[in-house]
UniProtKB/TrEMBL annotation:
Domain Mechanosensitive ion channel MscS: 180-246
GO biological process: transmembrane transport
Domain of life of the native organism: Bacteria
Name of the protein: Mechanosensitive ion channel
Keywords annotated in UniProt: Membrane, Transmembrane, Transmembrane helix
Length: 423
């Protein structure tokens, strides 16, 4: 380092600042020329203008501080000036690097539009880029802080002492930050496994909403009534949830109506066709009206229809339900649900018709009472005789009590099987 007078020092400083100003002007002109052909150059100019100028100013000051020193200032105080200039260069350089990296990420994201009907790929890329942006900023900040700390004298000795106790510290930090680290890795897993994406329609904790924000530690779900549900990212890796737009946004919805047995189902089906033909909410992929149940004095009619997304499907289901109710009230009142009751008078003192007593031989059973039962009994006896003959041949020591018990158990099993399949 050369020692100069104050006049020489300020002259050198002025030349350095003038050089930085000329460099800023040249770069500005070059970017404007590029902007005539490529639109991204203008966006780059707006994004990196301030950090680039700050970095050039810090470089100009640092070049002067590390090359010349006024003769009236000793070396010890001037080292602090050099340290400040070094910190300015590190900070402005990290700012410029982060701005350029974020610009590159935004430039790649601009190729995918999320305002289209089929935007599944765009939403996946947007989700992943949002996570990468946070990782980029965190990495740049960590590197900048590390470089700044290494600029201070004595940090090497501090780092050596920290590394010497790294084993104990790592165990303590792992235990203390277990939840934070699990959320961090869960955020990466959620972003790159394509389980959920931004604007996905999900059902979590019995609530319906959209994925509004995904971070490394939590996910924000915007519910249907504009409430926000904040869930840790580990929720989506450890708890089942519904994703209605996992592969596409088209959905199939159902409307169920309980009506009377006298309802005109073909007319109701024609009414559904009329309702769907008169609305733009239906995407014309599928429609059907079916009777799905008929118990308890009513019949249940289910109408199925499709829509382009969850919000449209909700409105379409409400419309179809309202129109079908109106049709029942005005066009087919016989189809309105009714509860029927029959009153029967009974005189307990009056004569009762005698019951015919069946003889035991007339009651049909599994193994008796008709030709089929007799045939099953004969088939069972023949199979049991063959089994006992084989058992005697293999084990002559079997006594009669053991045979009787085995015969009773086999008879029970055969009766159960034949009762299920009598043929």
């Amino acid at each position: 380092m050369v020692v100069y007078t104050w006049s020489t020092f300020f002259r050198t400083l002025g030349l350095a600042l003038a050089g930085a100003l000329v460099a800023v002007a040249l770069v500005h002109v070059v970017v404007l020329l590029l902007a005539r052909r490529w639109a991204w150059a203008q966006r780059l100019l707006r994004a990196a203008r301030l950090p680039f100028r700050s970095f050039l100013l810090a470089v100009a000051l640092g070049s002067v501080a590390f090359s010349v020193r006024p003769e009236q200032i000793t070396a010890a105080p001037w080292e602090w000036v050099q340290l400040g200039c070094r910190l300015l260069m590190i900070g402005s350089g990290a700012w410029l690097l982060a701005a350029v990296l974020l610009f590159v990420e935004d430039l790649g994201l601009a190729r995918y539009r999320t305002d289209l009907r089929d935007n599944r790929t765009a939403r996946r890329v947007k989700t992943q880029v949002s996570i990468i942006r946070r990782l980029t900023i965190a990495a740049v900040v960590v590197v900048a802080i590390g470089a700044a700390l290494l600029s201070f004298p004595g940090v090497e000795a501090l780092g050596a002492s920290v590394l010497a106790s790294a084993g104990v510290i790592s165990v303590v930090a792992a235990v203390a930050a277990q939840s934070t680290l699990s959320n961090l890795f869960a955020g990466l897993q959620v972003a790159f496994s394509d389980a959920i994406r931004l604007d996905d329609v999900v059902i979590v904790e019995d609530e319906w909403g959209w994925i509004e924000e995904i971070t490394l530690s939590y996910v924000v779900v915007r519910l249907w009534d504009d409430r926000r549900m904040v869930l840790p990212t580990t929720y989506f890796t450890s708890t089942p949830f519904q994703n209605w737009t996992r592969h596409n946004s088209e959905l199939l919805g159902a409307v169920e109506v309980d009506v009377d047995w006298r309802v005109d189902v073909p007319a109701m089906r024609r009414e559904l066709d009329r309702i769907l033909a008169g609305t733009e909410l239906w995407d014309q992929r599928a429609k059907v009206l079916q009777v799905t149940d008929a118990v308890g004095g009513i019949i249940r009619v289910r109408a199925l229809m499709t829509a382009v997304d969850a919000g449209t499907l909700f409105d379409l289901r409400c419309l179809v339900r309202e129109e079908l109710v109106t049709w029942l009230q005005t066009r087919d009142m016989d189809g309105l649900p009714r509860q029927r009751m029959e009153l029967v008078e009974h005189d307990p003192s009056g004569p009762r018709a005698p019951r015919v007593q069946e003889r035991e031989s007339e009651r049909p059973g599994v193994f008796s009472g008709d030709a089929a039962g007799d045939a099953r009994a004969a088939r069972f006896r023949r199979a049991e005789q063959e089994r006992r003959a084989d058992q005697r041949a293999t084990d002559p020591g079997v006594d009669e009590e053991t045979e009787a018990a085995a015969e009773a158990a086999a008879g029970g099993r055969a009766a159960d099987e034949l009762a299920d399949d009598p043929v």
